Batch of 2 targets.
Target 1
Amino acid sequence: LKNLTDHFLEEWFWRPAAIASYSAGRFAGARAATAWHGTLSEMGMVVVSSTISAGPIAQTLSAEGKPIGEGGKALERAFPRFADDFTWWIEAAKAQRARKAPPY
């Protein structure tokens, strides 16, 4: 993923980003999400404050991708804010780009 983002670096400038992570373990990819936050910021992206973490994934989502158990309930509660934050920044970025080109 890092190689891909580096290859298309300029495509990411002045774009909003939201981080969703998961893992088989209980930390739900939180360490990777923390690392990506700084990386994406250095690439010129605005990283929204809301994050989504799902883990252990097998106890959070079914094989069909449906929320299950307590982890699934937590995911369902967290997702609306995550989506709203990301949508707000997408709309803000579009409006600003229409008003003025990014500085680089």
Target 2
Amino acid sequence: MKTITYKGKRLYRDPARGKVKGVCAGVAEFLDIPVRLVRVIVILSMIFGLFMFTLIAYFALAFVLNEKPYGLDSQTQRRPTAHELLDRLSAELNGGEMPLRDMERYVTSETFSVRSRFRQL
């Protein structure tokens, strides 16, 4: 059996999430795309003339790839969802807003203009 590695990621079959042998689930996890999308691509390739090629490739991968080891779960290295990323970004932007407001208030105040005139003297 063989494990394909690219940039520290490994390609495994994932029978726990798979329908037949877990090849589509493993490819989806490797590429960080939804499993449903990989399955749709496989079905469409079979419908639009690549039936034998797709079938041979699927069963070749099912035979060649190792099964995902127990305990190696992508949930432990879960990527944040879009909502979590947006919430984090919003909090960061809001955190930087108050110092910016204070600086704007100071620059537009008379104290700033008086101090800058004294410095020019």
